[in-house]
Design goal:
The chain has 6 helices and no strands. It is an all-alpha fold. Among the domains are: 17-89, no CATH class; 95-120, no CATH class.
C-alpha cells in the first residue's frame, strides 16, 4: 500500500494518525462504492466506516477538551476560563451594536445614552392623563346581576359532559 506524506511544520498541530487512516479508508470505500455500481454491501461498509470515523473524532475532541481543562490551576486567569466557557457553550463574539448605531446616527456617547435610556427605560409622564385616575362606577346592566340558584342548576345540567380539563376517565 502506498504511503501518503503530510507536510507538518514545527508549529502545526500533529494530526492524529488513526483518524487520518479512518478517513482515508472511508474515502477508499466511497471510491469502491461509486465505481462498483453502488452495491448495498459497499454502502453498508461505507456507512460503518463513516460512523466509526465520526465517533473517533468526537472522542478525540472530548479528550482534548478534558486535557485542556486539566491544565487549570490556581494561577489560571479569568480570560482563559471565560474563553473556554464560551467555546463550550458555542457563543461567539458579537459586533458592538451601540458603537455602530452611534456611528450611523452621528451621536455623541452621552446623547446616545440618553436616547437609549428613553427608549428602553421610559419614565411615566410628569402630568398623567386625567382620565387614567377617574373612578368608573359599575353599570346596572343585566349581565352584572348575580346568578340565581335555578339558573346555576340549569347551566350545570346543560353543560357538555367530559369537556372539563380536569376530567379523568375511569
Amino acid at each position: 500500500m502506498a504511503a501518503r506524506l503530510l507536510d507538518v511544520g514545527e508549529g502545526d498541530p500533529v494530526p492524529d494518525k488513526n483518524l487520518t487512516n479512518l478517513w482515508e479508508a472511508r474515502a477508499l470505500l466511497h471510491k469502491v462504492y461509486v465505481t462498483n455500481g453502488k452495491r448495498f454491501k459497499d454502502l453498508v461498509q461505507l456507512r460503518n466506516k463513516t460512523t466509526q470515523a465520526r465517533r473517533y473524532a468526537k472522542r478525540l475532541a472530548r479528550s482534548r477538551c478534558f486535557d485542556h481543562c486539566a491544565t487549570f490551576d490556581e494561577r489560571t486567569g479569568t480570560r482563559k476560563l471565560w474563553y473556554t466557557h464560551r467555546s463550550l457553550i458555542g457563543k461567539t463574539k458579537t459586533p458592538n451594536t451601540a458603537r455602530n448605531i452611534r456611528l450611523v446616527t452621528d451621536q455623541m456617547s452621552e446623547q446616545f445614552q440618553e436616547t437609549a435610556a428613553n427608549a428602553f427605560f421610559s419614565q411615566p409622564a410628569i402630568r398623567p392623563y386625567p382620565s387614567l385616575y377617574e373612578l368608573q362606577t359599575p353599570g346596572n346592566s343585566k349581565c352584572d346581576a348575580p346568578f340565581t340558584m335555578q339558573e346555576l342548576t340549569l347551566a350545570l345540567d346543560s353543560m357538555n359532559e367530559c369537556s372539563a380539563p380536569a376530567y379523568t376517565y375511569s
